[in-house]
Amino acid sequence: PRLPPLKWTVEAALEMGVPTPVITMSLLMRYRSQVEDTFSGKVVAALRNEFGGHAVEKK
């Protein structure tokens, strides 16, 4: 199966020994946000909506 681009990037970097702390953290936060609502996730969503017009959509 095809990996999502962000996951592929993190896995490729790990295989090559390239540190990618910010990209890796963003992937982990993405997974976490799909499992639970956190205060930090809500703050980021509010900022994205305010500055970028990316509305939060609940499924």
Which term fits the overall shape? elongated
Query: What Rg, in angstroms, do the CA atoms define?
Result: 14 Å
The assigned structural class equals: mainly alpha
Q: List the helices and strands in order.
A: HHH
DSSP E strands, number: 0
How would you describe what is shown here?
The protein is an all-alpha fold and 59 residues long. It has one domain. It is 69% helix and 0% strand. It has three helices and no strands. The longest helix is centred in the middle third of the chain and has 15 residues. The protein is elongated. The model has no long low-confidence stretch (mean pLDDT 84).
Secondary-structure map:
Elements: H1 5-16, H2 21-35, H3 39-52
